[in-house]
Design goal:
This protein is α/β, with parallel strands linked by helices and about 290 residues long. It has one domain (about 10-285): Rossmann fold (3-Layer(aba) Sandwich), CATH 3.40.50. It is about 35% helix and about 15% strand. It is built from ten helices and nine strands. The strands form two sheets. It has a seven-stranded mixed sheet with strand order 1-2-3-6-7-8-9, with helices on both faces. Strands 4-5 form a two-stranded antiparallel ribbon. Strand 6, helix 6 (about 165-175) and strand 7 (about 180-185) form a beta-alpha-beta unit. Helix 4 (about 110-115) crosses helix 5. The protein starts with 9 loop residues before the first helix and ends with a helix.
Length: about 290
């Protein structure tokens, strides 16, 4: 069972950066942190730290958290025009590089505009993709590409993110081929032809139980398609390999029922299990 309790609070969903880092000797992960899915989940959550604001201490907090995990050479990227942020870090000497994109911040108009601009447009690698996601990715693509060219070398790039950040990581995996993709709570990014441009054999798309964001935009034939098979995390925070569609629906029904009974009415909590399951910490808990 997960060592972190399920968190149904609005703070966990809307301000995931407020929770202290789980990296370091005091974190609950222990020997689990070398697992790349655990590392990606926590880095996707840490990407919400506002490192782009010089008046804040959150850039220093991000650096300290990554250093506690033994990571080095932190580099941050941002576009004020689109409100897009990401950070990159070296995981180990001679090891892979990790690039984590920030997800949607509900109080940022640019992020909301990005999410809502769902018209499909042609994608450079093939197929069609969500216009807002493509526009946001393009705003940081050149800076990130230059960094990868200097730092990655023969290193494997690992691309990750949560929510909007997961969508941007998926575009990055299509654009810079040869990397590994790990996403959490990703919306659909493009059509079936686009999905074929992503190396799904080197991808993991995690879905936490009822997470509503993973179900938008709607999967309509000829329009949007899932970016690879779902790796389902059940209502107890446990990944269920090979689970059937019927079992998923039963698990989701039980999750909604228990949320209404135990969580929705509590002050400060999210009323909907579909939204509460999207909180980044509820993905992290599946791995530690």
């Amino acid at each position: 069972m997960p060592s972190i309790a399920y968190d149904a609070t609005r703070a966990a969903l809307l301000n995931p950066e407020l929770r202290p880092s789980l990296f370091g000797p005091g974190g609950p992960g222990g020997p689990a942190w070398p697992d790349i899915h655990a590392v990606c989940a926590e880095c996707s959550r840490l990407a919400y730290l506002h490192f782009e604001k010089p008046e804040s201490d959150q850039g220093a907090r991000l650096g300290a958290a990554l250093a506690a995990a033994g990571f080095s050479d932190l580099r941050t990227f941002q576009s004020a025009a689109t409100g897009t942020q990401a950070f990159a870090v070296l995981l180990a000497a001679g090891g892979p590089v990790l690039l984590a994109f920030r997800g949607t911040e509900p109080d940022q108009v640019t992020d909301i505009g990005t999410d809502l601009a769902a018209t499909l447009v042609p994608w450079v690698r093939g197929g069609r993709v969500h216009f807002g996601f493509a526009h946001a990715f393009a705003s940081v693509r050149d800076d990130i590409g230059a960094w990868l060219g200097r730092q990655a070398g023969d290193r494997e790039p690992i691309l990750t993110g949560h929510s909007l950040g997961a969508a941007l990581a998926t575009l990055a995996a299509s654009f810079w081929r040869g990397g590994r993709l790990v996403t959490f709570g990703s919306p659909r990014v493009g059509d079936a032809a686009f999905v074929k441009t992503v190396d799904l054999a080197r991808s993991a798309r995690f879905v936490d139980c009822c997470d509503i964001v993973t179900q938008v935009p709607p999967a309509v034939a000829g329009l949007y398609a899932d970016s690879g098979p779902m790796r389902y995390i059940d209502r107890h925070g446990i990944e269920r390999a090979g689970i059937s569609e019927a079992a998923v629906e039963d698990d989701r029904a039980a999750a909604r029922s228990s949320h209404l009974r135990d969580e929705a009415w509590v002050s400060g909590n999210v009323w909907s299990r579909e939204l509460a399951d999207h909180a980044p910490i509820n993905y992290v808990r599946a791995f530690v």
